[in-house]
Amino acid sequence: MGRLLAIGDIHGCRHALDTLLSQIDPQSDDILVPLGDFIDRGSDSKGVIERMIRLSRDLQLVPIRGNHEIMMMQARDSRASLLEWSGLGGDKTLDSYSAQSLDDIPKAHWHFIESTRPYYETDRHFFVHAKAYADVWLSDQPDHMLFWEFFDSPPPEPHCSGKIMVCGHTPQMDGLPRDIGHAICIDTAVHAGGWLTCLDVETLEYWQAKESGELRTAALRPTGV
């Protein structure tokens, strides 16, 4: 059986993503769960989406939807939504496509964005972009919790499923994953000069890469050790 790997918010940082993937060398029996926010803020959202599409042909890719994917899809509906998205990093995404409008983005890329999932769960873990109410089953979680709420406001309580939550969305500006036992946040602020993190959720080993190409690896300590 392969590994269960989660990747934090990429935000258009293609070089960090490529560097990280070369280090973890995902195989066909691995399950790779990127936690959303593939786009915006970094310089190559187009390259990130292209890499994700290629990965989906080679292994089990389970892309989670982030709030930036939601804003990009909403930007098709009105000029106000387009301006809001552009001001929150969408301008960088359009630049990466050399696009004058959203109509210039390839259909295959829209299909990938639209195919992202609100959550994913296994026997021992569940994966969301932002957060989850402790006493609400995943199928009933509201969008504002799955996509928009921050990790520390307040910190999540143990989920009623008994599973460990793995999420992104809240940048850990010290560059280290935030592990509180029943929940782990692996957004380590790559778009702001930090790290892009990939976590093996079973072994708790993690790998990190910067846009500059710098690499490092470490492991979380199991709860109670």
Number of helices: 6
Count the beta strands.
11
Q: What is the rounded distance between the termini?
A: 26 Å
Structural class: alpha/beta
- Helix percentage: 25-40%
Order of helices and strands: EHEHEHHHEEHEEEEEE
Largest sheet: 6 strands, mixed
Keywords:
225 residues; 5-stranded mixed beta sheet
Q: Could you explain the architecture of this structure?
A:
By secondary structure, the chain is an alpha/beta fold. It contains six helices and eleven strands. It has helices at 14-24, 45-58, 67-74, 79-96, 107-115, 143-147; strands spanning 4-7, 31-34, 60-61, 120-121, 125-127, 164-167, 178-179, 183-185, 196-200, 205-209, 215-219. α1 (14-24) links the parallel β1 and β2. The longest helix has 18 residues, at 79-96. The protein starts with a strand and ends in a 6-residue tail after the last strand. The mean pLDDT is 96.
Give a quick summary of the entry.
The protein has 6 helices and 11 strands.
Layout of helices and strands:
Blueprint (H helix, E strand, L loop, with lengths): L3 E4 L6 H11 L6 E4 L10 H14 L1 E2 L5 H8 L4 H18 L10 H9 L4 E2 L3 E3 L15 H5 L16 E4 L10 E2 L3 E3 L10 E5 L4 E5 L5 E5 L6
Parallel strand pairs: 1-2, 2-3, 5-6, 6-8
Antiparallel strand pairs: 1-9, 4-5, 7-8, 9-10, 10-11
Helix pairs in contact: 2-5, 3-4
